[in-house]
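User: Sequence recovery, please. Input:
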């Protein structure tokens, strides 16, 4: 059975290498579909209340983008790695195509290579998306997704002859995909021994768009799974692997602290803030407190919705406008959530690193939270899918059971990672018991936040 699976996965990899035209066709079909759903709805009227997903293009596009596309792209990272990036992503395809055909191939400036971009871009895009209600309005989606696509094309035009400079350094979800795909059960891997032993004549290395050292390939976190290198020197192949391998075996080699910040502050803290503020009574109390204070001091301008829709949500025709105070409170709530969770978890894991005299432990143990972070993103995004389908009269009586199952399962998975990592990092039983106990406690606020969102508020 295991060898059958291995053969099937291997053949899938070589098929991707030998069917480049089919992959190219898929890419252009996705680009066309993406443009239709992104551009046309932005110039249509807001749908009346009685419209349905299947009878109105604006609602259909909203459902496809936020109800299906995003949650299932997140899920796909855990199932097939970054196949989305290498085969389907319209931004990556357009950036690569522009670079290959019209690229100026300028030297990539150092500021582009700054390792903090994935974290900063994810946090700022998430915040901006909430401020202009990107899930609800097609013009907001066009601004954010279309703006990002234009930037990807521009970067492709300026840098890298056929390489994906945008995807590797600047894409706002590159860091998220990098972390999530570490849980994938398949990966392209290179066998360095076979690579060295190959005597089939001189071969030019395959073109790797995200500019990876293919010889050292042993995971999917940076690989876009495009399949171009499958079979190269009889050493590279798509292989099944344990979903725990990349974190437990190679996790301590990943020393990029910005990825840890992205995980703790962004994918956990900011994501919790972004998904919960609309239902949080704490948000309402905070806003009421500030509003009273402003009125008591005769300051009224922050209570007027005078910002244009591309700064703060402003759709009076839909009775949906943010005043300046709303914008301020949303910003404080989301960034505050990022700071509270990120700082709290950082302090705990830094303490563990000091306690166990393992300087690499902060980055290593933080990766144990990836399953729980993935569950949060998936559940938060599918909340939009559910809301849209509920408007259409569909009843999800089973939903909270499934949510509880996903949260419990990923929590156990994170605990298992913590157990394995701390077992490797401790010399004495008392060290292990204390550190694992503290790690387990650190999961409670994260699960607690989702529990509040889905079961209490
Ligand atoms: S290593 Fe590069 S060429 Fe090979 S599959 Fe990954 S992205 Fe493609």
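Assistant: Recovered sequence (457 residues):
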């Amino acid at each position: 059975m295991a060898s059958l699976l291995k053969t099937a996965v291997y053949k899938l990899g070589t098929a991707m290498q030998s069917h480049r035209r089919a992959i190219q066709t898929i890419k252009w079909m996705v680009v066309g579909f993406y443009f239709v759903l992104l551009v046309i709805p932005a110039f249509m009227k807001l749908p009346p209340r009685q419209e349905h997903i299947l009878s109105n293009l604006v609602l259909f596009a909203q459902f496809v983008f936020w109800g299906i596309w995003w949650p299932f792209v997140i899920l796909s990272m855990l199932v097939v790695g970054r196949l989305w990036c290498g085969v389907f992503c319209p931004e990556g395809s357009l950036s690569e195509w522009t670079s290959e055909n019209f690229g100026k191939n300028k030297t990539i400036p150092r500021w582009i290579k700054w390792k903090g971009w994935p974290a900063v871009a994810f946090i700022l895009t998430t915040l901006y998306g909430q401020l202009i209600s990107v899930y609800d309005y097609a013009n907001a989606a066009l601004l954010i997704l279309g703006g990002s696509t234009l930037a990807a094309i521009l970067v492709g035009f300026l840098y890298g002859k056929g390489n994906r400079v945008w995807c590797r350094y600047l894409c706002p979800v590159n860091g998220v995909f990098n972390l999530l795909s570490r849980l994938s059960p398949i990966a392209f891997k290179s066998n360095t021994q076979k690579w060295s032993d190959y005597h089939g004549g001189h071969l030019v290395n395959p073109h790797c768009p995200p500019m990876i050292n293919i010889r050292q390939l042993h995971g999917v976190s940076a690989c876009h799974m495009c399949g171009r290198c499958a079979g190269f020197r009889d050493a590279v192949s798509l292989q099944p692997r344990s979903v725990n391998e990349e974190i437990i075996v190679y996790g301590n080699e990943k020393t990029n602290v910005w990825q840890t910040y992205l995980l703790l502050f962004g994918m956990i803290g900011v994501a919790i803030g972004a998904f919960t503020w609309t239902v949080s009574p704490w948000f309402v109390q905070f806003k009421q407190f500030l509003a009273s204070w402003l009125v008591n001091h005769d300051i009224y301008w922050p209570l007027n919705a005078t910002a244009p829709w591309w700064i703060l949500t402003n759709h009076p025709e839909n009775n949906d406008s943010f005043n300046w105070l709303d914008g301020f409170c949303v910003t404080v709530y989301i960034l505050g959530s990022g700071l509270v969770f990120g700082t709290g978890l950082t302090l705990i894991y830094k303490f563990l690193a000091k306690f166990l005299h393992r300087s690499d432990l902060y980055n290593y143990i933080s990766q144990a939270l990836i399953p729980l972070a993935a569950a949060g993103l998936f559940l938060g995004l599918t909340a939009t899918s559910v809301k849209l389908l509920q408007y259409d009269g569909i009843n999800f009586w089973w939903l909270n059971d499934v949510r509880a199952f996903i949260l419990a399962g990923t929590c156990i998975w994170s605990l298992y990672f913590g157990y394995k990592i701390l077992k490797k990092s401790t010399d004495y039983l008392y060290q292990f018991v204390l550190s694992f106990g503290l790690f387990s406690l650190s999961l409670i606020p994260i699960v607690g936040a989702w529990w509040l969102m889905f079961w209490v508020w």
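Residues 86, 188, 206, 208-210, 212, 214, 217, 223-229 surround iron/sulfur cluster (CB under 6 Å).
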